Amino acid sequence: MTENKLKHIYSVAKKMVEIGKLNNLTEDELKELFVLGFLHDIGYEFTGNRKHNAVGGEMLRDNYKYWQEVCYHGIFDSPYKSLYLDILNAADLMIDKYGNDVGFDERLNDIKSRYGKDSTQYKNCTSIVNDLKTSKRIKLSDEHIKRKVYEK
C-alpha cells in the first residue's frame, strides 16, 4: 500500500469519527466508524480497478459486520443503504487521494480532472454529494456543506 493511500484511509477514518460525533453516535459506534474508514479501500490491494469496493466487500463478507458498506461505498444508486454508508461516502468524498481534508467541491474537481466531466465516476460522485447535502439522513456541518474551492 502506498504512503498516499495510507494517508487517505487514515484521514477518511478520522473524518468518519468527526461526522459520527456530529451525529451523536456512541463511543463504540465511533470506534466502528474508524475501523470501517480504515478498511474501506482494502480492495485496492487486490485490484487496481474501479471495482475495489466490491472486491473489498466480498473479501470481508464472512468476517466483518460492515462488509456491505465497503462493498457499496461510492455507488449512488446502491441497493444497500445505511447510516454508516452515508458517513463513509461523505468522508471519502471530502478527503483527497493524498489524505487532505479538502471538502466536497475540491474533491469533485479532482475527480473531474482525472476522469472527465462526462465520466461515470464524476457523475456518480456528484450525485452522492448532492444527495448527502440535501438529505437529512446525516448531519453535516456548514463547513462540510459550504466549503468553497479557491484558485491556487
Q: Just give the CATH class.
A: Mainly Alpha
Radius of gyration: 14 Å
**CATH level-3 fold name:** Hypothetical protein af1432
Which strand-content bin applies to the residues? under 5%
- Give the total of beta strands: 0
| Biggest β-sheet strands, sense, barrel | none
Structural class call reads mainly alpha
Query: Gap between N and C termini, in Å?
Result: 29 Å
Helix count from the secondary structure assignment: 8
Q: What shape does the CA trace take?
A: globular
**How are helices and strands ordered from N to C?**
HHHHHHHH
Can you give the helix content as a percent range?
55-70%
The figure for the number of domains is 1
Q: How does CATH name the architecture?
A: Orthogonal Bundle
Structure in words:
This protein has 152 residues and is mainly alpha-helical. It has one domain (3-146): Orthogonal Bundle (Hypothetical protein af1432), CATH 1.10.3210. Helices cover 60% and strands 0% of the residues. It contains 8 helices and no strands. Helix 1 packs antiparallel against helix 2 and helix 1 (3-22) packs across helix 5 (83-92). It is globular. The N and C termini lie far apart (29 Å). Residues 148-152 have low confidence and may be disordered.
